[in-house]
Specification:
about 180 residues, alpha+beta, VC0467-like, ten-stranded mixed beta sheet, about 35% strand, globular
Length: about 180
């Protein structure tokens, strides 16, 4: 069975029917006996960040859909721990969270850009052992996390790029339809 740890990227199998997770790619930020917390990295809300922060001019940054849980929570991933202290190191130079006031100042002064930070509304979560069961059912495939996927600007290519990282045996999956009856 595949193993999951902080920094793992979960790739939804091509026929996963749960509308919340179809063709999703999720960065696991926490995985322990209390459950799993991850952020979906390839879905867009269509809204700018400025709609969700008071007194802000951050509307130039996009807001991504981090998952179906905690839709009233804002999370951010970044690559600049030297500028934004307090973040939790996830993997491959990727950090989750940090000092909120510092982050808003960096954005306001445009000292950080969307290649270095991403904002997410909500998250994806699993109860203890729930993700293990989904892995046994082969609902998810796993690869090590990396910044090139997490900060890829082409959201439509992230799932396919993640599948490519699995190796040549998985490449046919890229062309599978969402509904296998259309095959």
């Amino acid at each position: 069975m595949q193993t999951v740890e902080k920094g793992t990227i979960l790739i939804a199998e091509p026929f996963l029917q749960d509308i919340n997770f179809q063709r999703s790619v999720i960065l696991v930020c926490e995985h322990d006996l209390e459950g799993t917390f991850g952020i979906t990295i390839n879905k867009d809300t269509g809204d700018p960040l400025g709609y969700y922060l008071e007194d802000s001019n951050e509307s130039f940054l996009p807001l991504f859909d981090g998952g179906p849980v905690g839709r009233d929570q804002l999370h951010f991933l970044h690559t600049v721990p030297d500028l934004l202290p307090g973040g939790l190191h996830i993997t491959d130079g990727i950090y989750w969270g940090g000092d909120f006031k510092t982050m808003t100042a960096l954005i306001r002064d445009r000292d950080i850009n969307e290649d270095e930070i991403r904002f997410f509304l909500g998250y994806s979560g699993w109860e203890p052992l729930q993700l293990d069961e989904e892995l046994k059912e082969k609902s998810w495939l796993c690869i090590p996390g990396n910044a090139s996927l997490v900060f890829n600007k082409d959201l439509k290519s992230i799932w396919k790029d993640a599948v490519r990282e699995l190796g040549n045996d998985y490449l046919p999956m890229i062309n599978y339809p969402l509904d296998p009856s259309f095959n």
